[in-house]
Amino acid sequence: MSTPSTPNTSDSPSTPGAPAPGPNTARADALSGVVPPLCTPLTPERAVDAPALERLVAFQIEAGAAALFVAGSTGEVAYLTDEQRGRTLEVVAAAAAGQVPVLAGIVDTATPRVAAHAAAAKAGGADALVATAPFYVPTHPAEIRTHFRAVRAAADLPLYAYDIPSFTHTKLDAETVVELAEEGTIDGLKDSSGDLDALRAVLELAPPGLRVFTGSEVVADLGLRIGAHGIVPGLGNVDPHGYVRLYDAARRGDWTAAEREQVRLRALFRLVKAGNPARMGPYSSAIGAFKEGLRLRGVIGAATTSLPMVALDDAERAVVREHLAAAGLPTEGDDA
After folding, report:
1. Is the pLDDT at 213 greater than 80, yes or no?
2. What secondary structure, in 3-state letters, does 283-303 show?
3. Which residue is catalytic, options 160, 190, 247, 291?
4. Is the residue at 288 inside a domain?
5. Is the pTM of this model over 0.85?
6. Mean pLDDT, residues 179-190
7. What residues does pyruvate bind to (predicted)?
8. Which of 2, 65, 78, 160 has the fewest Cβ atoms surrounding its Cβ within 10 A?
């Protein structure tokens, strides 16, 4: 694992378009860098928008993404049908064409359903899998261990545990994560808990080889400084270049540059509050803002979100544009 004072530096940065040094499953097993959890572009009729998704993949790879994560929370995984999940993975795997590994979210409520998603994702071309603990009902650590072992057995690919207690209502404790890593059940962790102390606890106990990522958009620099191997930022859809700059600064130990980039990105992240809370929830606001940002940047054609999410109105979309302008990001119609 990395020392607490520096990010992991054992892997060479990904070069967009470069040939893979080996099977992408192996690359996904030793991953570092920026791994954007892709939005899922939808047509106005709410079908997967394959051309827009292909443009999003190209946008991310050009920016220097180390891998691509499909069907995560930012990808509206809880709203997608199985057919939509499969189509999204198919499009991304084909568009990535082996340039970077593709991680597939296999999030669902119970072990049999997650195991079925795991097998389908492996057949669909995923290089690695990302799974939460079971949710809807409270889960004991013993049940969580059984869950991850069954998922790994269903599809023997690198498996990342996804700690997002705000959605699952279950926190993956450091001891459980480390036990699963030591026995070879999981290969990595995406920590979206927002708990830096818990992240540090995993890093202090982690066996060699466990890849630990922060899912925070706003304290990514701190996560890297205490030893995280990379970042999985939803805002990276809109500004992947910024997160790659942050990560690269951390890799070379330039914490002043990393903090400066983080401050800019933290201000940009306020676009997730563009939606009026009197008429929509925070998830509708955040996903709608990410998609509107991508639309304004010319990457996708429509900012359509899944039902029953509420769409941003004209005033709210204008707020997103203002945040992009303040962050120095050109939008369609700008001269830059």
Report:
1. yes
2. HHHHHHHHHHHHHHCCCCCCC
3. 190
4. no
5. yes
6. 98
7. 74, 232
8. 78
Question: Is 162 marked active-site?
Answer: yes
Q: What is the mean pLDDT of the chain?
A: 92
**Is the Cβ–Cβ distance between 223 and 62 less than 8 Å?**
no
- Asked if pLDDT for residue 77 goes beyond 90, the answer is yes
Q: What is the mean pLDDT of residues 255-273?
A: 98
Q: Is position 74 annotated in a ligand binding site?
A: yes
Q: What's the CA gap between 305 and 308, in Å, rounded?
A: 8
Is residue 296 in a domain?
no
CATH of the domain at 88: 3.20.20.70
Q: Which one, of 192, 162, 165, lies nearest residue 177 by Cα?
A: 162
In a domain, 290, yes or no: no
Helix (H) or strand (E) holding 230: strand 230-231
Burial label, 208 (beta-carbon count in 10 A; 0-12, 13-18, 19+): exposed
**d(C-alpha 11, C-alpha 303), whole Å:** 36
Is residue 26 very low, low, confident or very high in pLDDT (cuts 50, 70, 90)? low
Contacts of 186 (CB under 8 A, 6+ apart): 148, 152, 159, 160, 161, 177, 180, 210
Distances (CA, A) of 297 to 69, 229, 275, 324: 20, 29, 19, 9
Q: Is 79 a catalytic residue?
A: no
Q: Please check whether residue 211 is in contact with residue 30, taking contact to mean a CB–CB distance below 8 angstroms.
A: yes
- Using an 8 Å Cβ cutoff, are 88 and 40 in contact? yes
For the chain, the domain total comes to 1
Residue 140 domain-assigned (yes or no):
yes
Question: Is residue 138 over pLDDT 80?
Answer: yes
